[in-house]
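Consider the following assembly input.
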Amino acid sequence: MISSFLLFSLLVAAPAPAPAQGIVAIRVGRAESIASGTLEHAVILVEGNTITAIGEDLPIEPGIPILDRPDWVVTPGLVNCYSRLGLTSRAGNQFEPHVLASQELTEVNSALGQVLELGVTTLGLVPPGAGITGQAVAIRTKGSKPADLVLQDRAFLALSLETNSSSKKALRRGFEGVDDYQGKVDKERAKFDKKNDSKKSKSKSKDKDEDKDKDEFKPPTPDEKVKPFLDVREGRLSALVNIRKASDWLHLRDVISEEKDMRYHLRCPLSDDIDLYEVKDAIGELALHFVTTPTITQQVGTRRERNLPAELTTAGAKLVFVPASDSVRSHETYVKEVAYLVSKGLDAEAAYYGLTLGPATVLGVEDRVGSLEVGKHANLVLWNGDPFEPGTEIQAVMLEGAWVHEEDGATE
Amino acid sequence: MKQFKHTSLSALALFLGLAFAAPLPALAFDDEESAEEAEEEDGDKWFAVVDGDVFTGTGAVLRGATVLAKNGVIEEIGYDLYLPEGTQVLRVPGQRVYPGLVALSATSRISRGMFASRDEGEIDELARAEAEIEGTPESPETFDWLAAAYDPTLPGSSAPEDEEGAVGRRPVRMDAEDGYDPFNPYLILALATGITTAEQGDSALKLKRGSIDGVGMTEKYISSFAWSNSSPSSKESTRAKFKSASDYLREHRKWEERGDKEIPEPDKKGVDANALKVLRGETWARFSSNDRSELLGIARLAQQYKFRPVIYGAREGWTVADELGRAGAYIVVTPRSRADKDERYVRPGGSSIENAAKLHAAGATVTVVPASTSIDLSGIAGRDLLHLPIEAGFAVRGGMSEQAALEAITINPARIMGVDHRVGSLEVGKDCDLIVTDGDVLHYETFVQWAVVAGEIAYDKQEEIYFAHIRPRSDAVDPLEVVGEEPATEDEAPAEPDADDAEEGDDAEEGDDAEEGDDAEEGDDPEAGDDASGDDATGGR
């Protein structure tokens, strides 16, 4: 409604006959906007690299090229928030919260182009290894040079928490470093204040302006390994915690019980015999983003199938899907696997969210990508039918206003 | 009654208010009263096992008695107890109530689960055990870190028991506690056996279900010492350790008595820290031996240096039972352990089914462990940790009293771990860790029907996939109810859980369904209860 009004006002305000370069209107049967639900007979106006209008049955000014596909469905570009596509792997536990995955971006890997064709327009790259591994970077999947790819550096702090003392100790160590640092800051501040007070009393008779010139208290710079945890504690940096079973979650809660302002998401790839249903309500209650694979699991000790993603959604968690394995091939099938979960009872809206805005939120780029909204990047995927129906295929992909992939004649 | 008191008080207040035309204080009074009451109801968690034959583990049997627990601690045991409103009641007519069993040297699978990685924590434990044998303390970091956390004399430290009360820093947990998986299948199997406390590494853990709070009870209560015929030097070094520790203590006492500050405190250098702890009564000394002459040697060493040894194995203990009894030994035996006598000797030897009985008669404190303390069907079925009570049953077969056999799997192992003030018997003030069985716990046909840990149902045979199909309990009567709550009618009762189930497609059998007690239809009917348990309660007879 609002967007249609916007379009209207736009037309009124700028009645120039020749529309600006790079404007295109896309008219499809249905748009999964994520932000405002499903739109029938949707029209999306793309100007430059952003969406400038979206709505149902919007009037389109004459002269604007129209891509008219009444049978097609458009979704936002898919987002995978946890990947190491095209990067070399590394084993072993580490404690390197300061490492940035963006430092590994030395080339535009061909794998990026391949997943772009599969509809993935945004990718979160994480540092390698296990333990407390460093900070992720959100990238667009196309660019002429590595620096062009970066959408958001320091997207989140990636770490894992397992049910064992060494893993818990590592995380505690991170926060204890901040404890020590904050203790030091307090001490320095006290010293600073004392010095100031004594100066003040001495120079009471002097001009008051002099006091104003005095420099502000500057806290000492934290160690590079302490800084990320300080940011996590104060809510400036979110954390993505990898867990593997239900008890890991309890132990995570145990370690971070004091961290009131910490923002975090969970990641747990699903496997048979996973017992996560034991804590689904607790996770749901906190409405956490839960990064997981589209997998049907089994009740422990039985062959009974469980649709854990659906259960988690019902409990209140926000699902975020990643492919079952971190390969291009797995990106080919993961939307279909999500569709299977939908056929087994997963809410379709939650499923779309988990493929787009959910992962974008985990990466902290939800203000730019992940949904079809005015002002956001024009990352679109055009499907020749319902994406969750068998046989539906991607016809075209738009990344920031440019067609980056299309089947023959799809955008003519 | 409470209700009556409340009404009368408010009535009084109202009267006063009217009489003095000062309604404000009267209202305040009223509010305070009800607030207090509400707080009491909200804050405390009551749980009661009702109508069972309570085997307290101290020798007493109270037929048809009630065990009442408040916030996980036993508040009262007896008859005609007042059950506060909101008490969760488990009605078990005709069934037996025992203290939860205590398992020594239990497999780490209990707390870590099947797919538990062999993480550093576990390796640490091994290293520590090795270090103990070598007589050197474990790696400095681990040592300092944990020692500082638990040493009550150090500032800022917190004992494991009062973690909640610890201020400032995050609660510190034991290594074993940090590896605790309260959802794993082996834990459920252990509870199904009746085990509610288990030794994991060198820690005592309470087998809580679905929670990791308050799981660790104690750790590092034992140090290992070597004493072996095949390695005479091991005997030599163990004796030297105790000698040096004993000498040091004597010197230290002398120095203290003299009270002369000029003279320096005796030097601890070269004194074995573990032996010193043993002689000070801070930890136990653990030996492992089956051989008669080794057992004699250990008994004499213990008497000489005045400590009570903990001896694992002791297969030939029956031949030197008197000596072990005199040494006040704690003996950890496996009654079904078998070995032939060494025919080179004339003296008695080899295994005996009477081992446990004779040791007990001689005054030793006997604890029973099964031949294998793992949970593993690829081994010898029927002799693993899941058959702990049956192993104790074999001690009875060897002539031990049933009471002593029960103690051998409850209070005695609890004593070794130093947690006998909290678990091992049903007594007021102890933790409400108990099991409800359909017969004599030592009988092989008996099933654990419920296991209660810290006043919460941790295992219910009918709710788990393992034994529900064997002699299923009659569901004519719901044994669970909540005091003061109307038994739910058919239509409204299943509203919440069933709606949930329908959405999931299948229901979680292992969820904490303990709260669903309000589905009771006729929970108050004692006759129906008797009928239900009639066919179950035959096991032990």
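The two ends of chain B are 43 Å apart (CA to CA). Ask yourself how this observation constrains the way the partners meet.
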